[in-house]
Amino acid sequence: MNLPSCLPLAALAAAVLAGCAATAPGDALPGATPLPHGERPAVALPVRLDDPGLGLNPAVLAPPPPDWWAGFQAPALVDLMQQAEAGSATLAQALERLRQAELSLRQTQAAAGPSVGLSAGANARRSAAAGGDWAATRSSSLGLSAGYELDLWGRLAADEQAAQATVAQRGFDLASARLSLQASVATAWLNGLASAERLRLARDNLALAERLLAIVQARHRAGVATPLEVAQQQTTVLSQRAALLPLQLAQRQYATALALLLGRTPQDYTPPVHPWAQLQVPAPALVQPAELLLRRPDLAAQEAQLGAAQANVAAARAALLPSLSLSAGASLGSDTLWVLADPSRALSLGASLAYTLFDGGQRQTAVALSQSQRQVLVLGYGEALRAALKEVDDALGGAERQRQQTLAQAEVLAQARRALALAEAQYRAGSGNLQAVLEAQRTVFSAQDGLTSLELARLSAAVELFRALGGGWRLQG
């Protein structure tokens, strides 16, 4: 047998080894009843997600669209979402973790296949015989070997399934990170706009207080107002000026927070503006309780993690049983250095069965550990699902109640403005007192700030509702 005919036999043996079928995890494992991947632990779902007391009609409410932020009718927000997608370090990290999981899957798949090795060597040796003469020996060799582990009990297949589930989990983690980023961008931008609106109102209130101070000072010069009244209104003016500082700080802090979300340098970033009064509150969205399981990427990630844990249990059980490996090899050898002239030939085929008789309970402990780890994930999934249901309930209730409260606060502000106008007119005419004007001022200032805060809360509740419902994401397949 020469080299061209000897080495291909080993390659053919390697191909035969690669064609050995692997057994699915648990198929031949006594007592193993693994759950199918993606099977959800039993968690009681409510009949409907919304509170009937809110008066919503689930039949006419649609799930959130993928571009849910467009409902705010703010082109600047749409542009911010595009910037966040391109510049977020958080998304880049999640994408890289997905890539790492895919590479790990390739490693696992490669480890389950056959291995083929090539070896070559040359050796020269001089040794002294008993009579004192030196003898020289030379040799050269070339060999090809192949090995393959038969997956009799599904351990290697279980490892691959665990790796596949991890890839799915990382993909869902990426979707969850994207949804969280979108909600954070919208919230930070809306908070910044609200701070700008509150700052504008505070400046208007300062101008109102300064105008009233001029009236009080004029009345004091005319001998109608007392020095106490002048001092009281001056105190109001100073208080309004001091109120500008924390609002300016908050506006800047929201701008820098938004810059970080976009992957921008905070010192060089100025967020886009949009008229506060032109912001629209998107229509509420709603899905059926069972649909929520398919629309939350964080829940899908936990399911995938649970699938990986179940595969790990199957792999640990399979490790209790013997392993069978096949091997094949071919080699050439000669007694010349670096030259395979008239070589000797060898071909080998073999099988080896390995079983650990005693390991101090290490493998049994590994099975128990993997089962415990899976149980932790089962409990965690139930907790995460109940938390998701609570988030939806809170967001729905918050959105509707904030709407009602905003309408009521708008009426409070309208009445406060009328009261201030009447108090100021009476004071100018001499039939009123400054204390009534001051009290009316404080009521207007508080009502204006309260209305802006409620409008922000209503917009933020809409963002939170979209996030709680999955933001338009849906599990495919």
From TrEMBL:
Keyword match Lipoprotein: yes
Key words, A-Z: Coiled coil, Lipoprotein, Membrane, Palmitate, Signal, Transmembrane, Transmembrane beta strand
Localization annotation: Cell membrane
Stretches assigned to coiled coil: 81-111
One Pfam family from the record: OEP
Keyword Signal attached: yes
InterPro entries: MdtP/NodT-like, OMP_efflux
Family membership noted in the UniProt record: Belongs to the outer membrane factor (OMF) (TC 1.B.17) family.
GO molecular function: efflux transmembrane transporter activity
Name of the protein in question: Efflux transporter outer membrane subunit
Domain of life the protein comes from: Bacteria
GO cellular component, one term: plasma membrane
Signal peptide: 1-24
Membrane topology value: Lipid-anchor
